[in-house]
Amino acid sequence: MSLPRLSRQSLHLVLRAGRDLHALTSMDISRLFYPSREEAKAAETKSKEDSSLRVGKGSLPVPSIYYSPLRSPVSELASDRLKDAFALFGKSKVLCSDAGGFATMYNAESHSFLSVPELNSPKGARYIAISIPHVDSAMFGDKLRGNHTDSLYMMAMVPGELCSFEMLAYYPKSRWRWRPLPPPPFHSDPKYRTPDSIPFALVGGTRILVSSDRATYSFDTVAMEWSKAGDWVLPFLSKLEYDTELKMWFGISTRSPCGELCAVDLSAVALGSCDELPVVQHVGLDVDLPQKYWKLMDAAVVNLGSGRFCIARFFVVVDDHDEYQSHAVVFTGVEVAPSHEEEGVLSMVNHKSECLVTDEIEQVL
User: For a disulfide at 204, which of 10, 193, 270, 326, Cβ 3.0-4.6 Å?
Assistant: First the structure.
């Protein structure tokens, strides 16, 4: 039986294109999936007999447009803190922000830029960004014309900015607006250290869950208040994606050297604090990679609906002496469904994988 249409048809890639220059392009996701689950299973069985069939070689799509920041870091010291930031707004718009907070919005459908206000403070190299539809417009305290669509929340994970957390809302018949939000409690903790991995998720449609280096906190976007979810840290590399059919959140585990897909039920967190970390279920990512020479640096999960995901994993490739050889990004299309053999367990089918040997890909949105 053929699979339902993917909820998204493309990935948005942010590329390094030279000093202070970025390129934006799109990658067709459908090429990572077979037409049906049965074909994917048959191909997976065949690839187990011949490992050379598991990962195909891909190439970078031609850039759609180039982005040059208005302002750049004034020194090498500042460049580590004040870097350009990118965030997905809805499904087809990408916010581009430079080291000074100047922002513009790229529309991937019309291949054009839209003017948006500057951020109150730049977000730097370590930040989270999450797009949420239909947040209450009353938070602005004045009447804005037109129906509110989506909001973009951006938060710097490095404390010190005057406005580390803010949201952008768009009103079709009025204007874009940034609103400062309360900073997270861990920013005022003198013992806080910015974690290497920043796991976060949208829970219940209105709560942003984010882990610091020692605990996890929840921000209520309606009440605009922070609360502590628990003294535990989500063991994931980056953003978790929620699947409405499976009713689970999916992300890449920090406990696996090659980045395995895991699932967790965070619904109880939306109701209040939890004494213990919710149970994390291993799902898998059976792609044959030479683990000895490939070191996982980062990963991203993109939800495509109906239990399907695109997983992008960033590797550094080294030789026998642990000397750098190259960068590689592996894109994998997977399908997750309840197991027919064991109740409450998820099973996964790999579709297709492509490896791009390049250091140009900066972000996958």
Answer: 270
- 241-243 and 103-107 strand pairing: unpaired
Percentage of residues in the chain having pLDDT higher than 70: 87
Query: What digits encode the pLDDT tens for the residues 84-142?
Result: 899 999 889 999 998 889 999 999 999 888 889 999 999 988 999 999 986 554 555 55
Domain that holds residue 73: 10-364
How many CA atoms are closer than 13 Å to the CA of 220, on its beta-carbon side? 13
Whether 229 and 216 have beta carbons less than 8 Å apart is answered as yes
Sign of the alpha-carbon torsion through 255, 261, 264, 267: positive
Q: Are 249 and 239 in contact (CB under 8 A)?
A: no
2 domain-assigned: no
Domain CATH code at residue 235 = 2.120.10
Domain count, the chain: 1
Q: How far, in Å, CA of 164 to CA of 160, rounded?
A: 8
Handedness of CA 117, 181, 236, 264 (dihedral sign): negative
Burial of 172 (0-12, 13-18, 19+ CB in 10 A): exposed
d(CA 318, CA 297): 13
Query: Residue 137 carries which DSSP code?
Result: G
Q: Residue 15 domain-assigned? A: yes
Are the C-beta atoms of 159 and 187 separated by less than 8 Å? yes
C-alpha 211/C-alpha 64 separation (Å) is 35
pTM, two decimals, is 0.91
Q: Judge whether 184 lies within some domain.
A: yes
